[in-house]
Amino acid sequence: MTGEREKSIRIAVVPGSVRPGNYTGKAVGLVLDELSTYEDVACDVLDLAELQLPHPGQGGETPEVARFRETVDRATGVILATPEYHGSFSSVIKVAIENLGFPSVLAGKPVGLLGVAAGTIGAVKSLEQLRGVCSHVGALVLPGPVSVAGVQRIFDDEGRCTDEAVEERIRGVARTLVDYIRGHICPRVALEKFVRESGSNP
Ligand SMILES: Cc1cc2nc3c(=O)[nH]c(=O)nc-3n(C[C@H](O)[C@H](O)[C@H](O)COP(=O)(O)O)c2cc1C
After folding, report:
1. For a substitution probing ligand 1, which of 17, 82, 85, 86 has the most ligand atoms within 8 Å of its CB?
2. Is the Cβ atom of 87 under 6 angstroms away from ligand 1?
């Protein structure tokens, strides 16, 4: 078994619904399952129902807020998953982003987006708006956000995905992020380490 210390990639996953039995969590379950197949990847799932992050100005810098921010800060990449609520992403996702600092620890970090909706047009509006906010704080939002329409029909009562094509697309959120990190971040980190250790950097 690969130990946590040997994993070179760390992904912070933020499911953006706190409704009991929510479908965002079921979709995130597939993303986590996909991530668990990569030997070099460790995951931190940030449960917003448990964390109950404060609105700006209400609650201050609690140890919980600090831990939340540190977890995202040390992540190599981030996955934000949101339900479509009233034509936008969820308020808990916005509060989560607001608790990531100003300037934000998301700055410069690759971010993959996933959205689920009950409606037939999917979570396109949520994802567009979430992309805008993430880009505003300096995150590198990866292309190909995944929107799932009619989500109640996609998962059965046991939470299993009943549509193979949709499952592949959801798993793709994990693959796209890990491929990006392996191709663009890991080589840079390795090069920096080599230069530092070889003493060629004055
Ligand atoms: C407050 C609220 C607003 C919603 N607005 C929309 C909407 O604008 N479009 C849509 O397709 N579904 C909408 N839905 C349905 C959600 O997309 C649906 O509950 C879906 O399962 C994703 O949310 P969940 O992860 O909380 O389950 C709304 C649900 C709630 C609770």
Report:
1. 85
2. yes
